[in-house]
């Protein structure tokens, strides 16, 4: 049987760029090379699509420098012709990466609009059967690249345009889940475009605090960008008391606004953070859920009760936390988490895969925090570990996701 040709897409313009690189490295090391011919396509931070750059399989966690897709002397620009669909993937010459005046170096161009004399510097990458977009954050996990592949009629792994865009925006995730009768943490949303300068955040500190008080949000508060992932721009504010409480809150809003003008102020929940992997690789089949897991912050075991799962804990310091699957909870509560996770995934019209992050409160009730439509695939990520504990090994999981979209 001929191998299916799969583009693995990684990098991107979001803050999560290096995490996408590491996730893609893990996928490329684990993918079944006897079944698939893989074409790694990197996206630089500036949005240039390239092939033949640095081999991503060598990237891993635990190094001092996070990986990045860079233009090398051997890399070539990737050009897309949407009208040609699965046959619309091309590569140009290296020098054209520096010559955007000819249409190269952009996300996609139409071959029909290029001078015929230029065709000799463009070669087809061949028929592409499917794309695995291992992209995190904006411009990759938010429905934008999904819309591109929908337009090209190219099968791709993961959620569609609606679910991707809704779940990328924490505000609208909450709105949709509430409409489905699913409990979410109380919050307010700020439009920081109203602040015309950095100093405007401090000048409006009283108003920000007043909005928190009117919403009766209980401390601690978590201030976060609405459309960012991997804990970028997230700040914990412990108390509204004290002379500098307003300044701390305003500073936290400013920090979040550096990643997104839409900022959430969310009530901290007294509960354990329990995550559940969700899988629906074939549309006709029912949504499946893994054994729920818990990321245990090892710093808390050393007396740091204020620690939370920030960027460094997730990706930079393997000793900062570890994953426990299943989470140490009664079976009844674990099943409740799985039920809520599956219901949440279906409520946002999920497809392929997602990780549903929940809070389990002391009374056993379950509240959804957020849904990640392209969860991390690194060696310490919850999603693959949860499925391994549930009986689906990492390599088989990748095969199921790819074969699922090929069967549609």
UniProtKB/TrEMBL annotation:
Its main location: cytoplasm. One of its GO terms (molecular function) is D-alanine-D-alanine ligase activity. GO terms for cellular component: cytosol. Keywords: ATP-binding, Cell shape, Cell wall biogenesis/degradation, Cytoplasm, Ligase, Magnesium, Manganese, Metal-binding, Nucleotide-binding, Peptidoglycan synthesis. The keyword Cytoplasm applies. It comes from the Bacteria. Mg(2+) 2 binds at residues 370, 372. Belongs to the D-alanine--D-alanine ligase family. Cell wall formation. This is D-alanine--D-alanine ligase. It comes from Bifidobacterium aquikefiri. The gene is ddl.
């Amino acid at each position: 049987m001929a191998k299916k040709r799969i583009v693995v897409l990684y990098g991107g313009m979001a803050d999560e760029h290096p995490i996408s690189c590491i996730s893609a490295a893990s996928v490329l090391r684990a993918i079944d090379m006897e079944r698939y011919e893989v074409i790694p396509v990197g996206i630089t931070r500036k949005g240039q699509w390239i092939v033949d750059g640095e081999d991503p399989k060598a990237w891993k966690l635990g190094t001092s420098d996070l990986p990045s897709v860079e233009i090398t002397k051997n890399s070539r620009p990737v050009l897309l012709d949407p009208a040609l669909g699965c046959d619309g993937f091309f590569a140009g010459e290296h020098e054209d990466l520096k010559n955007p005046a000819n249409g190269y170096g952009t996300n996609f161009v139409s071959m029909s609009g290029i001078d015929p004399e230029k065709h000799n510097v463009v070669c087809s990458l061949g028929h592409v059967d499917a794309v695995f977009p291992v992209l995190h954050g904006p411009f990759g996990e938010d429905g934008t690249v999904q819309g591109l592949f929908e337009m090209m009629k190219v099968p791709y792994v993961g959620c569609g345009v609606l679910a991707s865009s809704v779940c990328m925006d924490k505000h609208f995730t909450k709105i949709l889940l509430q409409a489905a009768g699913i409990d979410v943490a109380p919050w307010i949303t700020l439009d920081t475009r109203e602040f015309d300068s950095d100093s405007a955040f401090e000048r409006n500190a009283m108003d920000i605090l007043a909005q928190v008080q009117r919403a009766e949000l209980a401390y601690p508060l978590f201030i976060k960008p609405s459309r960012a992932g991997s804990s970028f721009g997230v700040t914990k504010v412990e108390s509204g008391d004290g002379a500098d409480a307003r300044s701390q809150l305003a500073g936290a809003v400013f920090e979040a606004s550096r990643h997104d003008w839409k900022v959430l102020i969310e009530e901290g929940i007294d509960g354990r953070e329990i995550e559940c992997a969700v899988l629906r690789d074939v549309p006709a089949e029912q949504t499946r859920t893994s054994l729920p897991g818990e990321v245990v912050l090892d710093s808390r075991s050393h007396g740091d009760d204020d620690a939370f799962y920030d960027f460094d804990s997730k990706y930079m310091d393997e000793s900062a936390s570890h994953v426990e699957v299943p989470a140490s909870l009664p079976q009844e509560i674990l099943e409740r988490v799985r039920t809520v996770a599956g219901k949440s995934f279906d409520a946002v019209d999920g497809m392929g895969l997602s990780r549903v992050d929940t809070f389990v409160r002391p009374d056993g009730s379950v509240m959804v925090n957020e849904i990640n439509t392209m969860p991390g695939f690194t060696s310490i990520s919850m999603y693959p570990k949860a499925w391994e504990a549930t009986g689906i090994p990492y390599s088989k999981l990748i095969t199921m996701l790819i074969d699922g979209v090929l069967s549609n």
